[in-house]
Structures are given as structure tokens and as C-alpha cells.
Specification:
By secondary structure, the chain is an alpha+beta fold. The protein has a single domain, classed as Creatine Kinase, Chain A, domain 2 (2-Layer Sandwich). It is 40% helix and 16% strand. It contains 16 helices and 20 strands. Strands 1, 2, 3, 4, 5, 6, 7, 8, 9, 10, 17 and 18 form a 12-stranded mixed β-sheet that branches. A two-stranded antiparallel sheet has the order 11-12. Strands 13-16 form a two-stranded parallel ribbon. The longest helix is centred in the middle third of the chain and has 22 residues. It is globular, with a radius of gyration of 22 Å. The protein starts with 18 loop residues before the first helix and ends with a helix.
């Protein structure tokens, strides 16, 4: 049985399983008898060739596009002639509520257990080959080099900074999300442990001199219409700083305190402001698919799709007379990095990476808030009087002061308590017993101590201000 064919027998966790059991199982490296499967010679991994955004199967001669977690394949080479084509692209993501799914992505820093140095490309190749051979993943090749793995609608890829990323399948429940992430981590540990390497559950590399991109776990969620997209975009964008505070987990840089609870979040404020940030126009009455298209077309992101007129008129300097394709448009959208990003789904980008239960708490937080109409309306009513300046202030201040950031006569902690309650209520109304995944966030707001502040306490009181200990504390 290949892992991609395995699903939960129901929408619920196995009887008697608690969050403590879940945490213990991953800390002990337990695979529960269903995750780490023995190799069977009759099942050989396929070799897939990666050509841009396409993946070809040499065995079946099939071709698929690297589609998003929550969407199906699109026609990769369809020319885009008018703005209406781009509007149609976004509109094609609209789904009825019964088809809404949950997609997760997360990255991990790899390091050598003995030296704490970043792992090298050769080690990553060995890891990918090992996972493919033992757990039946298909290899994605670029020439002779393996650059990723694919299994069903999941993929594992090598990122530019040497990070390993899981892009999960579109799933119906948070229980399935937990088992997908847990399975992936068990598989990685099964191979990596024998190689003497580990992976770090943190938002920003804490020690190394070379600057990799910060790590962002992302949640991808669906919408039913353009209006539904607008409502969800506004609610989630306004609350991204709240998520940043709750999940803050990057207080170290170059082995020392960096003065921030989320250095990852702060780092994005130093990048191109045209392609990042809080997008004030999302709260304008005129906002919709077309307005986001205007924004994206106005962003120069280093690709040849930077000038609006040239983009749509087939006047690309390198390819005169050739019109951009759907692949070009998707690549262009990927080069834009606001706190919430629109594709054919909404992508939440405000949190730091962290341990297993925090990775599961992130989709639980957003699903409970924006997949439930009552909770979504509560959020929209709460943020209705938040000004552009207040939203930007939260974005700027929260990376340093977290839950203790002053806001509207109180603190961000007060807002966080309110929205976690709404998220929990929203999950309970789904009737799938998923609210258990918010327990770790309830602990954060009850104690007022974020993951970053826990690390800083250990750094100052237990570790003798030696950040090397974080590698053991936060190793998957």
C-alpha cells in the first residue's frame, strides 16, 4: 500500500487519542504502525522529469502541472491575452463549500547533528533518494539531479536555501492534516537519523552566517465566490499580525538574541515594499479579482513579466510576438509576497515555523475563523473600525513585542484571546472534534508566553546563553 492511498478510516482521530499522545508519538519517533512502511521490491518509484512548472512521467507518459495544494491542474501553455483571462484564472478557484479543502506547506532547516552546520546538497540528494526508495515516492528530476519528490497530491521539494519543503495534499479535515505532517516527519527522521542529520522547527536559522530565506509555514484555503474571497482576504489580512504574535518562534540570529520574537516576520519588512506587506487596497470598496491583478501586474519581481503593457501585448523583450502563458502568470504571482497572497486560493503567510502541534494549530486557527460563517462575520465586525495606520502599526510592532503590543486601549493578547475563542467555536460547529488542535494556542494566550519567549527563558536561565541548545530543543 503506497502512502498516498492511505486515509483515515473516518473524519475522527482513533478512539482515545489525545493531543498529548500525538506529541509523544512524534517526539519518540513513533510511526504508529501505519507511517513508516517497509520497502517492497515490487513497488519501484517512478522518475519524473521537471520542465519548468511541468512534471512528466517517463513510465506513463502523462503530464501534470505543478498545481496548488487546493486546486486542480490548469492548462500550462494557454496564452493570456486580456485582463479577462486573468480574472477567469482567479474565478476558476471558486468552489462550493462542500469542496473546500485545507492545504499546508512548511519548510525545515537541515543540519548536521555533530557540527550543527547546514546540510550540503549531496546530503539532501541522499535524503530524497532514501525517502523515495523506502516510502514509494516518485522522484522529480532536473537533468540528472533529483530536486524533489511527488506522491499523489503531495510533494517534497528542495528550496533555494537548502530547506526541505512539504507541500501537502488538499485535505478535508485537520485530523488528516495532522497525520500527513506526522507521516512526513517520521519518514524524514527515519532516513535522516541514519545519516547523522536533523531538521529544525524554528522560524529563522538561529546560528549560521549565510542568509537563507526565513521559514514560513503556509495554510491555503478556498473561497466560494469573488465576494467570499474579499471577505476572507480582509479578515485574514487584518489578523496576520495576531498569528505572527501567537506563533513567534525566531528570537536568535548568528547564535545570539536578536531583539525580536519573530525575526522572520521582521525580515520581510526590509524587502521590496511593493511586493510585501499589508495591502491597504484590500479594504477599499472596489477590491476584487481585477484590483489584485492590477497590483500583481504592477510588481516587478525580477521576471520578464514586470511591465503590464508588455505582459499582455506579447512584447516580451526576449520573446517578441509571443504571449505569456498560464505558467508565466502563476510564476509571477509566486514572486509577490504580501502577508496574504491570492492565487486560486488564499495563502496565509504570517506565522513562524515550529514543532508538530504548532504546525497543526496554524490551519486549525484559520479554518475555525474563515471556514465558519459566524466566526468570519465576528472577525469582520471586529476589524471594521481598524484603520490602515493601525493595521500597519501591528505589522511593524508585533515582531518585536508580540502579544504585549499595545492596541486600542489594550494589548494584542486581548485580541488573540477573542479570536482563538471564535476559532474554537468555528471548529466545534464543523462537528469533527478538531478544536483539540487549538490547545497549544490556548496555552499561549493563557500564559502570555509565546514559543519565542520560552526559548529566550531557556537561553538565559538554562543554556548559559548558548543558542546551540536550540538545535536539540527544536529538532523534529
Amino acid at each position: 500500500m503506497a502512502l498516498s492511498s492511505w486515509t483515515l478510516p473516518s473524519h475522527f482521530m482513533p478512539s482515545g487519542l489525545t493531543t498529548n499522545d500525538l506529541e509523544v508519538s512524534i517526539k519518540k519517533g513513533s510511526c504508529g504502525g501505519v507511517i513508516c512502511l517497509p520497502r517492497r521490491n515490487s513497488l519501484e518509484p517512478r522518475i519524473l522529469q521537471n520542465h519548468g512548472a511541468q512534471v512528466k512521467s517517463n513510465r506513463r507518459h502523462s503530464q501534470v502541472v505543478a498545481a496548488s495544494i487546493t486546486e486542480g491542474a490548469v492548462i500550462p501553455n494557454m496564452p493570456l491575452i486580456t485582463k479577462e483571462d486573468l480574472v477567469a484564472y482567479f474565478a476558476s478557484g471558486c468552489k462550493p463549500k462542500q469542496e473546500w479543502r485545507i492545504g499546508t506547506e512548511h519548510e525545515k532547516f537541515g543540519f548536521e547533528l555533530g557540527t550543527l552546520r547546514p546540510i550540503r546538497y549531496g546530503q539532501i540528494v541522499e535524503l530524497l533518494n532514501g525517502i523515495a526508495e523506502r516510502f514509494y515516492w516518485d522522484k522529480i528530476m532536473e537533468g540528472d539531479n533529483v530536486i524533489g519528490l511527488k506522491q499523489g497530491k503531495q510533494s517534497v521539494t528542495l528550496e533555494p536555501g537548502g530547506q526541505l519543503e512539504l507541500s501537502g495534499a488538499p485535505l478535508e479535515t485537520l485530523h488528516q492534516t495532522y497525520f500527513e505532517i506526522n507521516s512526513h516527519l517520521c519518514q524524514v527522521k527515519a532516513i535522516a537519523g541514519k545519516m547523522g542529520i536533523g531538521f529544525l522547527a524554528i522560524g529563522f536559522q538561529p546560528k549560521w552566517e549565510d542568509k537563507d530565506m526565513p521559514l514560513i509555514p503556509m495554510v491555503n484555503l478556498d473561497f466560494s465566490s469573488e465576494l467570499d474571497m474579499v471577505r476572507k482576504f480582509r479578515a485574514s489580512l487584518a489578523l496576520q499580525p495576531i498569528a505572527t504574535a501567537l506563533f513567534a518562534n525566531s528570537p536568535f540570529t548568528k547564535g545570539k538574541q536578536n531583539g525580536y520574537l519573530s525575526m522572520r516576520s521582521h525580515t520581510w519588512t526590509d524587502l521590496d515594499k511593493n511586493r510585501t506587506g499589508m495591502l491597504p487596497f484590500v479594504f477599499d470598496d472596489s477590491f476584487g479579482f481585477e484590483r489584485y491583478i492590477d497590483y500583481a501586474l504592477g510588481c516587478s519581481n525580477g521576471l520578464y513579466l514586470s511591465a503590464k503593457e508588455d505582459f499582455m501585448a506579447g512584447k516580451l523583450p526576449a520573446l517578441p510576438g509571443q504571449f505569456p502563458t498560464m505558467n508565466d502568470w502563476e510564476n509571477h504571482l509566486t514572486g509577490v509576497y504580501p502577508e496574504v497572497r491570492l492565487k486560486r486560493y488564499l495563502e496565509m503567510r504570517g506565522a513562524d515555523s515550529g514543532p508538530l502541534m504548532m504546525l497543526c494549530a496554524l490551519p486549525a486557527f484559520w479554518v475555525g475563523l474563515i471556514y465558519d460563517e459566524v466566526s468570519l462575520q465576528n472577525v469582520l465586525e471586529m476589524i471594521a473600525d481598524w484603520t490602515t495606520e493601525e493595521r500597519q502599526m501591528l505589522r511593524d510592532k508585533v515582531p518585536m513585542t508580540g502579544l504585549n503590543t499595545p492596541f486600542q486601549g489594550g494589548f494584542v493578547k486581548d485580541v488573540a484571546e477573542r479570536v482563538i475563542k471564535w476559532a474554537k467555536d468555528g471548529l466545534e460547529r464543523r462537528g469533527l472534534k478538531e478544536a483539540v488542535y487549538l490547545n497549544v494556542l490556548e496555552e499561549v494566550v493563557t500564559t502570555g508566553v509565546t514559543p519565542a519567549e520560552k526559548l529566550l527563558k531557556m537561553y538565559n536561565e538554562k543554556w548559559g546563553q548558548n543558542a546551540d541548545s536550540v538545535f536539540e530543543e527544536l529538532r523534529y
